[in-house]
């Protein structure tokens, strides 16, 4: 599999994760999201940037859905944010689908909570 961005082919594995994470850019994320039927909004970018920050600046941490919800509640200053809110952004799993679009490797953790 691969994704085409500005005439450059970016290789992905059979599950859609980047083979070379250094090739990730916002345009790559947009192309990957479009391939999955997602148009990225400001809230998508908040979650993507959070996942990237956790991975690259917190010992390769890949938060689960519960942790994502709590972080987005704080980020958006909205206590009504729940799992449904983040699943509305990334329906196949905010931590896994969001992480894939964020250019992170596949999470080896099990479950959302």
Automatic annotation (TrEMBL):
**Homology family:** Belongs to the dsrC/tusE family.
Annotated source species: Thioalkalivibrio denitrificans
Question: What keywords appear on the UniProt entry?
Answer: Cytoplasm, Transferase
Q: Name one Pfam family in it.
A: DsrC
Which InterPro entries has this protein been placed in?
DsrC-like_C (IPR042072), DsrC-like_dom_sf (IPR025526), DsrC-like_N (IPR043163), DsrC/TusE (IPR007453)
State the protein's name. Sulfurtransferase
Query: For this protein, what is the EC number?
Result: 2.8.1.-
Localized where? Cytoplasm
Instruction: Identify the domain of life.
Output: Bacteria
Gene3D superfamilies (alphabetical): 3.30.1420.10, DsrC-like protein, C-terminal domain
**GO CC entries:** cytoplasm
Q: What does this protein do?
A: Part of a sulfur-relay system.
Class of enzymatic activity (EC top level): transferase
Q: Kindly list the biological process annotations in GO that this record carries.
A: tRNA wobble position uridine thiolation
Q: What's a single GO MF annotation on this record?
A: transferase activity
NCBIfam families, per the entry:
dsrC_tusE_dsvC (TIGR03342)
């Amino acid at each position: 599999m691969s994704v085409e961005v500005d005439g450059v082919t970016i290789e992905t594995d059979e599950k859609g994760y980047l083979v070379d994470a250094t090739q990730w850019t916002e345009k790559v994320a947009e192309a990957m999201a479009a391939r999955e039927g997602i148009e990225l909004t400001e809230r998508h970018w908040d979650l993507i940037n959070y996942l990237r920050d956790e991975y690259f600046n917190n010992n390769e941490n890949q938060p689960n859905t519960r942790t994502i919800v709590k972080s987005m509640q704080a980020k958006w200053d909205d206590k009504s944010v729940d799992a449904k809110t983040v699943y509305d952004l990334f329906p196949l799993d905010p931590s896994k689908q969001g992480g894939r679009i964020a250019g992170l490797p596949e999470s080896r953790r099990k479950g959302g909570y």
